[in-house]
Amino acid sequence: MPPATVPSTSATHSAGRSSRIAPHSHIRGLGLRPDGIADTEAAGFVGQNAAREACGIVVELVKSRKFSGRALLLTGAPGTGKTALALAIAQELGVRVPFCPMVGSEVYSTEVKKTEVLAEVFRRAIGLRIKETKEVYEGELTELTPTETENPLSGYGKTVSHVVIGLKTVKGQKQLRLDPGIYEAILKEKITVGDVIYVEANTGAVKRVGRSDAYASSYDLESETYVPLPKGDVHKRKEVIQDVTLGDLDAANARPQGGQDIMSVMGSLVKTGRTEVTEKLRREVEKVVKGYVEQGVAEVVPGVVFIDEVHMLDVECFTYLNALLESPMAPTVVFATNRGNALVRGTTDVISPHGIPVDLLDRCLIVKTEPYDKAQVAKVVQVRAGVEGLRLGPGVLDKLASEGERASLRYALQLLTPASILASVSGRREIALEDIGEMNELFLDAKTSATKIGSVAGLQ
Ligand SMILES: Nc1ncnc2c1ncn2[C@@H]1O[C@H](COP(=O)(O)OP(=O)(O)OP(=O)(O)O)[C@@H](O)[C@H]1O
Ligand SMILES: [Mg+2]
């Protein structure tokens, strides 16, 4: 029987940040057929077929690892779905491929250097799948008894001196006496009797595999994963697969107190006393990783960095990006911008398409999003209303569609929620035409707002 493998998804996402998904929650992917052709309406997307197909090709290239070190640039007017496309790419890639979104302006932090912010994102976008054979104690937890002793030094009563656990497999049973540190880990993972767990023999790291089959309940809806009672001995060698990123490894090596299980992977690298991720540390981590790849222990999974509003970066960042793209372990980069010709930030006179210097533009595949017509706006509004659980009265969809065509798709979408509040205030469950009318009096779209101010100030 092949050794059981335990997929771990926690590491890749441990460093993940909250994403800006809410306005895009209706997008579930690119909506492409198996032959790569876009259906006009699929996966929450409406239209934008050419751009979706182009993104589909990029997804295929990323999956087959042929696009690292290259860049895709999404351009188009505001509200034409560039951010939505990038998020769809992430969904198509799946959770195993790291996807690291950021906004151009995030580099302007007062605490961290601009280039450092970029470097870190790029490191988090390189995944590593590590296969390790570890010596473990695995089984269903049958007993968990912490032993307390009086602590003579502190006045605070008792401390846990050790913990006794019982582990059961199909073949046998074993009782282990473990360090109190492991008891803490057990509490942290919320492990209880009846869970299948394993304890790594060398590091003492504890992992919960799932709940033992024997405890499976008859409810259909449950988040619990049930696993069979492990076969073989309690004490054995087991193949473990872990997904981590270079960013995780950098951080774990810079601050060696945390990341118990990551540390076991990189054990050879730990040097205490480091508190900062330096370029030197990164090179060292890379060297170790290369060694693992050569031995066939680890596999590199290049992911994607998404930089939205890329025109917000300055010339220093752009130069650094060129260098990052050329490094041997580079992820795929997706940029998005709604600017046409613009001044490159940080220069006084360099005007360039999209505010991106030409040498970086030269490395980009450019995909343009098209403006929407009224029918397409109507469809997106309808999709969004469905997701937000809003009901539209007669004529409302048509009204919103013409608003969207006049101003922008985003404006039409933004009217939806406040209009639904107006409707519920008036005790209706459906958004009516008058709610939209009132919204238009209360709120302005960008063009109207600018015209009004312009005419008042005599700027027109
Ligand atoms: N083709 C589409 N199908 C469905 N929803 C769409 C489509 N295009 C855009 N949307 C939705 O419209 C809204 C605006 O789109 P998005 O934020 O992607 O625009 P953008 O091109 O990134 O604009 P900006 O340049 O202002 O950043 C989002 O809620 C997005 O999910
Ligand atoms: Mg956007």
TrEMBL record:
Belongs to the RuvB family. Pfam families: TIP49 (PF06068), TIP49_C (PF17856). DNA helicase participates in several chromatin remodeling complexes, including the SWR1 and the INO80 complexes. InterPro entries: AAA+_ATPase, P-loop_NTPase, RuvB-like, RuvB-like_C, RuvBL1/2_DNA/RNA_bd_dom, TIP49_P-loop. Residues 1-26 are annotated as: Disordered. GO terms for biological process: chromatin organization; DNA repair. Residues 68-358 form the AAA+ ATPase domain. It is found in: Nucleus. Residues 1-17 have a biased composition (Polar residues). It comes from Serendipita indica (strain DSM 11827). It catalyses: ATP + H2O = ADP + phosphate + H(+). This is RuvB-like helicase. One of its GO terms (molecular function) is ATP hydrolysis activity. Keywords: Activator, ATP-binding, Chromatin regulator, DNA damage, DNA repair, Helicase, Hydrolase, Nucleotide-binding, Nucleus, Transcription, Transcription regulation. Its EC number is 3.6.4.12. One of its GO terms (cellular component) is nucleus. It comes from the Eukaryota. The lineage of its organism: Eukaryota, Fungi, Dikarya, Basidiomycota, Agaricomycotina.
